[in-house]
Design goal:
alpha/beta, Transcription Regulator spoIIAA, 5 strands, five-stranded mixed sheet
């Protein structure tokens, strides 16, 4: 799993590549918190290159959403594959997370 990030319109856009599972979730969380540590608490995760996520990855998403909200920021997801979308919906996270079809769509509603 790899992360690349950029600042777009005062939003940390994080492009994630690879599986987010029990083997990668801890590092994923550490990397996300390092990015949030820069002081900007608006984050968009582009998951278009993530083929799979499990409960360990979902915990990181939920913790990130709570952290950004606690600091007055916003958190959103974009580019979900069908499999990732299904996992998020089965967990009920689609009711509490902002999800957009594309990164540009998400940024246009920021």
């Amino acid at each position: 799993m790899e992360l690349q990030y950029e600042m777009v319109q005062n939003v940390q856009v994080v492009h994630v590549t690879g599986r987010i599972d029990s083997a990668t979730a801890e590092k994923f969380g550490q990397d996300i918190y390092m990015i949030l540590g820069s002081g900007n608490h608006h984050m968009l995760l582009d998951l278009s290159a993530v083929p799979y996520i499990n409960s360990a990855g979902l915990r990181v998403l939920l913790a990130t959403a709570k952290s950004t909200k606690k600091h007055g920021g916003r958190f959103a997801l974009s580019g979900l594959s069908d499999e990732v979308r299904n996992v998020i919906e089965l967990a009920g996270f689609h009711k509490i997370l902002t999800i957009s079809p594309t990164t540009s769509d998400a940024l246009s509603h920021w």
